[in-house]
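Predict structure. Chain length: 534.
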Amino acid sequence: MPYQKNLKLIPQYMSKDNFFHLAKRFFYGTFASRILGMVRDIAMAFYFGSSPEIASFMVAYRLSNLFRRLFGEGTINAGFVPHFEALNHSSNKKSYEFYRDLLFSLVVLLLILTAIIELVLALNIFSSFDSTLLYIMIMLPGLIFICLYALNSAFLNCHRRFFLPAIAPIFFNIVWIVTIILVQGHSLKKQMTLLSFSIVVAYFSQFLTTHFSAHKIYYQNIGKEKWHFPNFFSKHVKLMLRPLTYSIIGVGALQINSAIDAIYAKIADPSGPAYLWYAIRLQQLPFALFSVALSSALLPTLSKALQKGQSDTFSKNLQKAISLSFALMLVCTVGIFVIGGYAVNLIYGRGDFTGESISNTYQCLVGYSIGLIPQTVVLIIANCFYAKKKYKVPAFATIATVVINILLNGFFVFGLKMNAFSVALATSISACFNAAVLGALLKKNYKIMFFPKSFVKVISIVAFSSFVTHIFGKYVFDDPSFYILLENSDYAYPSYFFQQVIQFFSMSFIFLGSITGFFLITAFLTKKSFSSLF
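Prediction complete.
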């Protein structure tokens, strides 16, 4: 049989193939795609600014992506990987048939859901003058492709192929950027309409990037003749659907929360969703590069360790992931406070993106940055429960978090009359609650240290480096960041590109250089390796 003949093609989980090496592959691909994503956001800010029409487009994009989050990316990865690994441990053939059956079943399910949602939107669009519903209707079909991309990515991850899924969004961003350039000269509403159509094409291109590689692996192990004879909603697909339902509930609650955030932001400020959009794009850069990279590589590793009964390996890798992610996210969080305003000014500060937009975006960025560490902890701990096929715990913890976030948003926006910054702050506070709940539940079964002694060194070094950077910025550039956070309109960043470049890279060099220098000095004085400090 083909699957027996090519059994050697399946990568083995060797000890040297640990999740750190796998995370590096994901990092390199994600870094390339995120850089191009940054170019896309710069183009959006330059050509469209933060007008209410742009805000409507961004609200539509976030709402339509609810579908993507429910049936793609994290949800598919969390449900597919543990089930595939369990089948692959006992029967190579069954695991590949499971992938095939799930893919075709997912297509049928998504087509039905898309048709139903489109019909509901069509019945409501004539009663609303807001263009948000129109943009959602246009974008929605493309989400079928992005969900299939998510399944292919999870399949490739199980075969230790992380670079291709991570770099695939490059093609999505290329289509988006080209469209931004081509639609110039039309009315703003027509530009947004054309851009919505292009997103469908962009999603398809992202799916196509992983399609051939995933199918090649399947063909080599099973053969082409069985591909077109799937067992729709097979026994193993149905077995996955029940635990997957909990994951969908948790992710759905989180994404509904994200959509509600955009609505609250629009109530607080007509341009509020735009500020949140630009801010979260920057906040998601370190999150995607480090947190998602570690998490994506960790889940297959944990699942395989459980299948082999290697509890020590399971705990050791989980502890390493938590410790390393804390150190990295602490540097990123403090870095956003110290140099985040300069980053916003350099990346977005031109064209129709005014000084007011820069200040509001920086405030939202700071609000989101507070949640970097707890969001990373949640992502990693959730993978621990997913590997053990305990989907209820993360799902219900997320639901409780969403309720807290909604209550905080209502209090901040309606009670205290705060601006869009409060929406980002509420998200971060609720993430802290989620991390605390999952962490407490995890410690009942595993001896995981969330605050080892090494963290004292990391916190001290990062804090002192931020102080040095602040003093440098204050006396060399008359740093306005602190005053902008206090909403003092008398202070602003420079608008000349050369000054923007000099200030951002100078502040970044001082901050990162100080951290590196202090770590090296500490390693030398304590006679320990650099990595052991984490």
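Summary: Residues 39 and 177 are 8 Å apart (CA to CA).
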